[in-house]
Amino acid sequence: MGRIKRTFDHSFKLKVCQNIDAGAKTVVDICKEYQLQRAIVERWFQLYVSGELEKKAGNREAEMEREMQKLQAKIGELTMQNDALKKLQTLKIDPKNESSFRITSKHLDQYRKPVPPLKLPPPATITVKKVNR
């Protein structure tokens, strides 16, 4: 039969490390009491001393973080669309009013430019040399 992997929550690890730090129990006593390996308890204590034994974000918190990031991205997208629509509103063209068009019949001539003639390269010439045999 295989081993069963036990998991320990943050509060248990913290309680064990605080007992060791306060001198209430030794590492050996805790290992015997909770049937733990000495290396595991020592690793927890090293993390506790260095301040890295922090409570990890639970599944619910991580899920909420992801949801918040999605919502912030959506807010950014909608803000950009809103700004674009506001700009479009200022450029709104009234089909009944000819002066609202960018190019009107009144000043169309200033936008007309003569088309330059098409410049083609000179036609290729083929020269054939006769070979005497």
Brief summary:
With 133 residues, the protein is an all-alpha fold.
Secondary-structure content class: mainly alpha
In round numbers, the mean pLDDT is 82
Strand element count: 0
Largest sheet: none
Distance from first to last alpha carbon: 99 Å
Share of helix, binned:
40-55%
What is the alpha-carbon Rg in Å? 40 Å
Strand content: under 5%
The DSSP helix count reads 4
Unreliable runs: none
SSE order in H/E notation?
HHHH
Q: Sum up the overall morphology in one term.
A: elongated
Describe this structure as you would to a colleague:
It is elongated, with a radius of gyration of 40 Å. The protein has 4 helices and no strands. The longest helix is centred in the middle third of the chain and has 32 residues, at 59-90. It has 133 residues and is an all-alpha fold. It has a domain at 10-50.
Features:
mainly alpha, 4 helices, 133 residues
How would you summarize the topology of this molecule?
Elements: H1 10-22, H2 27-34, H3 38-50, H4 59-90
Helix pairs in contact: 1-3
